[in-house]
Amino acid sequence: MSASPAGDRGALAPGRRRAIDRLRLADLPERLRDSARAVGAGELLWRRDDALAAVEWIAGHGLGIIGGEVYARVGGAEASHVLDWLTDPPWKPLEPWPAYVERAAEQAAEQIATARDDDAIELRFFLAVGGDAS
Would the pTM of this model clear 0.85, i.e. be above it? Predict the structure, then answer.
């Protein structure tokens, strides 16, 4: 998994995708809706355990996780960017979509599970997803 400048979210094949830069609250089951915090332009942030549950739900619905971001609540800031990652390698047209979905979910879960925090900083996680339109 590689770090990337904000805005570079990888690519899905044109004509074979419906990219979703953020999940809408209405798309999620009630438990994940209630645990998400919408910030900025509507990005959904979750605490670690809820983010891991979101990864499972996203993959279970055939969506691929393109990458993610980690934020911290620091001082008065609701979400201060800490780091980001991209699924590596990104999806390529010859890779079966279900294989990408599984690989991306594994990488996202690893990133979330291993993100370091301490008692003074509460981490929140954002997931950028895309889906196969076929």
Answer: no
